[in-house]
Each structure stands twice: as structure tokens, then as C-alpha cells.
């Protein structure tokens, strides 16, 4: 999601009665985004989500660093190394202290350059065109459960999950297509840290639940009439 204005399509199968997501169907772009959340340093995650909105105590810890006077830090250390960790791992240079074009910080971490063997080169060339960049290949569709478990999509796995869901309660399955942009991406990041139902929390909020059927009110009226008698 390099472009802040870009949107990724996510197809959801939901239970309209409980307003709960059963699973989602997505392509490479969304799976790459979800997997990239695992590469974010903790300080960067907190900065993205805003410390004041986070559950637990980690937000307070972050704010402590923010408010701490830099005179208390040891030499050659600054608060940015904690509040804005450098995670531009794809940028390398041959000159120490070169300014990173992404984060504008000096590049000082050493990395090893490995010359590929002939076998490695042939494997690499054989994969040309199979989803360059990101984490997963783009030739298949992926299933994402409500708790963000990602697996390759298959008819057997989806039918098994649907049957397991239907056996538990009376459901009304519906398809819902949503767009995932930067706002939804940040919401997914936050939900992934404090909820086992991330997709439901982000895309099926309580405000969207349908009103109960009118028949339920009729039953209540009948009970009232019985009481009056």
C-alpha cells in the first residue's frame, strides 16, 4: 500500500444475522500488506496508531520517551531511535552515514553482501515474473479468517469452514465487498493487536447491525397482553 490513496479490494463472507465475518477472499496485495505488519518495529507501530488510543501500558511507555528530556540519554543516542526506528531494510549503501532517502536518517547498520552461486542464480531466474516484490505469489487467491489466519484459498477449506460455522447456529450468509485503504489498514493493524476478530471489528462495526425483525416486537406485545389479562 505504497500509494496512500490506493485501495485494495477484499471480498468478505459474513453472517448477516450476527454481523460477523466468516472469512475473506483476497489477492496478493492485501496478503503482502498483512504480512508486512510483522516487519514493523514496535515503536513504529505505536506511532502509527497513536499512543493515547492503545490498550495496555505500551502507549504510556512510548509517551514517556516522548516527554523525556534528551539530556538524560547517553551519548550518540536520540529519541528518534526509539520513537521512529529505522526499518528501511531494503536500502543499502557503500558509504557509511549516507542519508536514507526514505527516513532521512544516517545509514550505519552493516549488512553482508552475498554473491549467489550458480544454482542460486538459476533458481532466482526461474522465478522471474512470479509475483516480484512483497511476500507471496500473485497467481492464487488467499483465504483470510476473522482472526487473520491466511491460507491459500481452496474449495475444500472454504466449504469445511462454512459447514463448521453453520452447525453452530442459525446463519444468513451474505457476500460483502469492501475497499481497504490507509484508514482501514491502520484499523486492521490496531485490531490485530487487541482482538481475535479483526475483520469483524473493522468492517462490520456494531453501528451497521440490522434492526431485529418486527416479529420480535409483536411477540413482546403479546406477552404484555397476557400480563394484562
From TrEMBL:
Return the annotated region ranges for Disordered: 203-229
Q: Which residues form the signal peptide?
A: none
Provide ranges: composition bias, Acidic residues: 218-229
Q: Which domain of life is it from?
A: Eukaryota
Instruction: Please report the name of this protein according to its UniProt entry.
Output: DUF674 domain-containing protein
Give the organism, scientific name. Dendrobium catenatum
